[in-house]
Amino acid sequence: MAKVIMVQGTMSNSGKSFLAAGLCRIFRQDGYRVAPFKSQNMALNSYITSEGLEMGRAQVMQAEAAGIRPMVCMNPILLKPTNNTGSQVIVNGRVLGNMAAREYFQYKTQLIPEIKKAFRQLEEVADIIVIEGAGSPAEINLKENDIVNMGMAAMVDAPVLLVGDIDRGGVFAQLLGTLMLLDEEEKDRVKGLIINKFRGDKSILDPGIKMLEEKGHVPVAGVVPYMDIALEDEDSLTERFDRKTEGLIDIAVIRYPRIANFTDFNIFEQMPEVSVRYVTSVAELHHPDMVILPGTKNTMSDLKWMRQNGLEAAVRKLSEQIPVFGICGGYQMLGEEISDPDAVEEGGVIRGMELLNTVTILKKEKKRCQTEGALSPVEGVFRLSGLGFQGYEIHMGSTSRRDTPDETIAENVISDGNLVYGSYIHGIFDRPEIAQEIITCLAQRKGIQIADGAFEDYQSFKEKQYDKLADTLRKYLDMNQIYGMLRDADIH
């Protein structure tokens, strides 16, 4: 059986995903076969495995850190919010259906056998499994029949590292308050506390750490500094949405309410002379060099949102001057019409932005597949024809040209022949030659030159980030204590 360790947090966005990824990298560097696991993920960023199954991207990122291919058993349950009170429920990579929050709360214990089965699959390929929790284990309204925090820890008898985020304030109250709200058996599982995202002189914290250990009766396993690590975030709480600085090349991404798979643009964010801004209003849009319409969990609703707040009209006007690129749901919006005969989203028919000669019909069956090859001939300012690509498709619906509605479009990227582009392929920018062509073209249009070295291979860049993360954690965590938790994983 694999050894297990679990990372839980005092709140969402406390840094659980990054810390779990860092531990995966450290254990891999130390010669172990390691795999990540999260029983239930709630996120709109998802990934399609080689088998055509859907999983959360946080575990894909952690699998990369572990040097293992992503497998859907690393994330057996994925919840993709469709509105403020309900989600699409995906089990073992396939859509089970849409459920309201209360309905899922009552149903979720029926999924415990699937969680255990997925975990057993991982045990066959890993010496160590790093489990990530969700939110906080002290959400007293959710503790009954929990399957993702202490309930998950109990299923596999896992020792727990509890992480608090000092950058958001009140870290001692976070950690002590969480411990106080756990029952004795749950508290016994917490073997170490971590203060995360610290800025400043650690010696100033020492009195607080001493009192924390005295009152909590749990040792502090480390104080981790705030890290400038460019890796994928789990969900829309990401801090990248707050960046508003315009760089030499300024890319504006429309941040609709149900934005999905914004990890598609990470490659641009790591380029030193490129800024990626997420905008929610016309006032924030300014005068970018390119506008991107990203994926969305609800195309029709988010298009209406753009229409109501003026962003649709602003983007249409900009499309006469600068490139506009739609991915997945954003691509569907760029067409002339979106119809929903089966009420997959809202039902009925809605006019599109009318920037591409396409129509989209939403369908009940979700398309899930990986795809790669060379781009078909693409007209327009970007010289993309023939460039290699690799990515995946994940969408409800098919798109065809207006004049040939019975023929689904087979091209990788389509355009209006000049400045407007659309594609269903997530990850299409990840190949360096595609990203380089886009940025080089934008620079030429602006009359500037991009410095040599700005186009580092994205996969190599990510590998360096994983190593940087592991090096930092080795320095600031008590790894002897953490390895001791693994040796003593059989708590009872």
Please sum up the structure shown.
This protein has a 6-stranded parallel beta sheet with strand order 2-9-1-10-11-12, sandwiched between helices. It contains 16 helices and 24 strands.
Defining key terms:
492 residues, alpha/beta, Rossmann fold, 16 helices, 24 strands
Explain what this protein looks like in three dimensions:
- This protein is 31% helix and 27% strand.
- It has 492 residues and is α/β, with parallel strands linked by helices.
- The strands form six sheets. The protein has a six-stranded parallel beta sheet with strand order 2-9-1-10-11-12, sandwiched between helices.
- Helix 6 (171-181) packs parallel to helix 8.
- It is globular.
- It starts with a strand and ends in a 5-residue tail after the last helix.
Helical residue percent band: 25-40%
In DSSP terms (H or I, runs of 4 or more residues), the helix count works out at 16
Strand residue content: 25-35%
Which radius of gyration do the C-alpha atoms yield? 23 Å
Please indicate the count of domains.
Answer: 2
- The 3D shape can be described as globular
Largest sheet: 6 strands, parallel
CATH class of the largest domain: Alpha Beta
Examine the coordinates and then state which fold CATH places here, giving the name of the CATH topology of the largest domain.
Rossmann fold
Instruction: Give the spatial strand order of the biggest sheet.
Output: 2-9-1-10-11-12
Number of strands: 24
Mean pLDDT: 92
Topology:
Elements: E1 3-9, H1 16-29, E2 34-37, E3 40-42, E4 46-48, E5 54-56, H2 57-66, E6 77-81, E7 86-91, E8 94-100, H3 101-107, H4 112-123, E9 128-132, H5 150-156, E10 160-165, H6 171-181, H7 184-189, E11 190-198, H8 206-216, E12 220-225, E13 249-254, E14 259-260, H9 266-269, E15 274-279, H10 282-285, E16 290-293, E17 295-296, H11 299-309, H12 311-318, E18 324-327, H13 329-334, E19 337-340, E20 348-351, E21 358-374, E22 388-401, E23 414-415, E24 420-423, H14 432-446, H15 458-476, H16 479-487
Parallel strand pairs: 1-9, 1-10, 2-9, 3-6, 10-11, 11-12, 13-15, 13-16, 16-18, 18-24, 19-21
Antiparallel strand pairs: 4-5, 6-7, 7-8, 14-17, 19-20, 21-22, 23-24
